Amino acid sequence: MSTTSYVLAGNVEIPPMGLGVFRSPPGAATRTAVLTALEAGYRHIDTAAVYGNEADVGEATRRSDRPREDVFVTTKLWNTDHGYEAALRACDASLEALGFDYVDLYLVHWPVPNLRLDTWRAMEQILADGRARAVGVSNYMPRHLDELLAHTEVPPAVNQFELSPYNYGSRRELVDLCRANGIVVEAYSPLTKGQKLDDPVLAGIGSVHGKSPAQILIRWALDHGFVVLPKSTNPDRIRQNADVYDFNLVGAELSELDALDEGLVTGWDPTTVL
C-alpha cells in the first residue's frame, strides 16, 4: 500500500485510506478486522464512541506489530456528549476505552443544533492539551461549516461525510468549501453500503483495469484527493480494498463516474440538520 499521506493542520500526516469500523460488532470481529487491515498495510483506523468498539480497536492496535505512532486512529464525539464540559469528559472516556494517551484525530460526529460552538471550544482545548493531534468534524454541511468558521480561529482539520460518485455533484459545494479553507475531505460509505456495486458503469471501468467495482469506487475517491474509509469485516475484502495503488483512473473515467450523481444518501442525512 502507498505510504503517501495528506497533511492536516499542524503538519499531522493522515494516511489516505483507512479501515472504517462502523457497525463492526464489538469483540473478535472488530479485532480481527483491525489486525487484518494493519497486516495488509493499512495505517489508519476510524472508529467512534457510538460504535461501541473503541476498546477492540485499541486492543488490536496494541496486538499488532505496528508501533502506536505508526497507526493513525480516529474516534468521534457522540451527540449526547455535546457541550463544553460533556465533550471533555467524553474525550477522556474514549481515550480510556481505547487505552491510549491520545488519538490522532478527534471528530465532532454530528452537527447538534445549539451546542456546536460550545462543543468546538472543547475540541480546541482537547487539541491544546494534546489529547488529540488534530480535531475536526463529521457530517457538517456548508451552513454548519460557515457557522463554525465564523466563530473560531482553529478551523477543523477534517470534514468526514458520505461521499461517492452517486452524491458527488450534490456535495460539490461542500467539497469546494472544505478545500478553500484547508479542510481535508474524508469520504465515508464510499462503497454505497453495497447499493451500487452492480452498476454496469463500475463493471465496465473495472474490466479495463482488472479491478472490482469496489476497487473502482475507492480509486475514484483517492484520485479526487479524498481520504477514503471503506468498511469491511471480511479479511479477503479488507485486503482487496487495499489493492488499489497499482492503477489510476483516467480523466474520461473520472468524468463518467462523476456524472453518476443521484443525490444518494445511504445513512444519516445531515442536510436536514439546522
Can you offer a commentary on this structure?
With 274 residues, the chain is an alpha/beta fold. It has one domain: Alpha-Beta Barrel (TIM Barrel), CATH 3.20.20.100. It is built from ten helices and ten strands. It has helices at residues 28-40, 54-63, 84-98, 116-129, 142-149, 172-180, 200-209, 213-223, 235-242, 251-258; strands at residues 6-8, 12-14, 19-20, 44-46, 72-77, 105-108, 135-138, 158-162, 184-188, 227-229. The chain has an eight-stranded parallel β-sheet. It has a two-stranded antiparallel sheet with strand order 1-2. The longest helix has 15 residues, at 84-98. It is globular and about 55 Å long. 47% of the residues are buried. The mean pLDDT is 96.
What is the percentage of strand-forming residues?
Answer: 5-15%
**CATH C-level name:** Alpha Beta
From the structure provided, what is the oligomeric state, counting identical versus distinct chains?
A: single chain
- Strand arrangement within the widest β-sheet reads 3-4-5-6-7-8-9-10
Number of helices: 10
Query: Can you tell me the overall shape?
Result: globular
Fold topology:
Blueprint: E1 6-8, E2 12-14, E3 19-20, H1 28-40, E4 44-46, H2 54-63, E5 72-77, H3 84-98, E6 105-108, H4 116-129, E7 135-138, H5 142-149, E8 158-162, H6 172-180, E9 184-188, H7 200-209, H8 213-223, E10 227-229, H9 235-242, H10 251-258
Based on the model shown, name its key terms.
eight-stranded parallel β-sheet, two-stranded antiparallel ribbon, 10 strands
